[in-house]
Amino acid sequence: MQLDTIKQLYSTYKESGLFNRYITNNHIKPLLEILSNKINIETLGQSVKGENIFAFKIGDGDKRILMWSQMHGNESTTTKAIFDLTNTLLSDQSKTKHILEACTLYIIPILNPDGAEAYTRINANEVDLNRDAQNLTQPESLVLKSAFENFKPHFCYNLHGQRTIFSAGKANKSAVVSFLSPAQDEACSLTPNRKVAMEIISVMNAALQQIIPDQVGVYDDAFNLNCVGDTFQSKNIPTILFEAGHFPGDYEREKTRELIYMSYLTSLDYIANNDITGEKYQSYLEIPENEKLFLDVILRNVKVENSDDGEVVDIGIMFQERLIDKKIVFIPRIEKIENLSNFYAHKTIQANGLKVLGENGNALKVGDENDFVVVNNEKIPIISK
């Protein structure tokens, strides 16, 4: 499927009812109600706090694909893209008809509704569901296990979001989208089903490189059977980790949403049209591994307080995402005061050897939260408006 076609489909079928970072059951329930006129909406179980965990199927093909999003409640970009995809596939659009004929998608849009409501990675029992694949201590984990066993997928899509800290390799390029074909043993062997997942990722990467060159990464494949992806891969089901990352300036993750949508359609089109053997996996190995080399803001060449010899340091700032009045607010917090020449920034402020003070004229220290800094009596905003 051509990228121009996918872009046109996205523009036409993007779900306008979902936007920004805060996506909960309350946001998707009206959409599921509308979708119930075309497909059956299931309730697979309840969360710790009794919230329903919904699922639905699209298509009637022989190739079964299980997709779940918001296992981590504060990772919502892939959920938005799921509804964009669903609108597209249910539109009777001739360009995607072959996917529904070849594939059946089983989609859990929000696996962790309590975490989504609280905007936290963990569930209401403060458990990371992506470390509960073996112990299965949580109701949400049991819901996913049951869906996996009952649906018997041929492919699994494990849908997540990643922080702004990641670079695609060691270059000054943020990892906008990342993938992983998880390991299924301690040796990280290139097993047949891992190669199948790698081949599909390679196809998505080739498409994305046309839009975000050098900004696709892969994660370290160190084996951890407590992780859901590793567990499902160990059951010989090709499993793909999707990570929606940071496109420059896109803190609401709307551009990334489109790129994830493109990844969905590119991969599903490939699965629908091919019997994938894993033989074309090699280009996956050329995708750079993610590094933690980015800060949201770096103040460069800041004069050290009480220094008379011109000593300078850098000040690294990360944005803290906080839920305030049902909205996500970004709070700049100082994380590092040191030489940060080995780090990159999504925004750089040059102090040129001058002192940098807080909003109240105070010296800056790690842990401070400031919307503005003062350089040479000029008030400079940390977050660009």
TrEMBL record:
Residues 9-271 form the Peptidase M14 domain. Belongs to the peptidase M14 family. One of its GO terms (cellular component) is extracellular space. The keyword Zinc applies. Transmembrane segments: none annotated. Its cofactor is Zn(2+). This is Peptidase M14. GO terms for biological process: proteolysis. Keywords: Hydrolase, Metalloprotease, Protease, Zinc. The active site is at residue 243.
